Amino acid sequence: MGAAADRKVSEIAETRRRLEADIRELEARLPAPLRSTKSVLGAIVGITALTAVLRRRFRSARPNGKPAAEVVIRIVRDDV
Question: What is the average per-residue pLDDT within 45-59?
Answer without folding.
Answer: 91
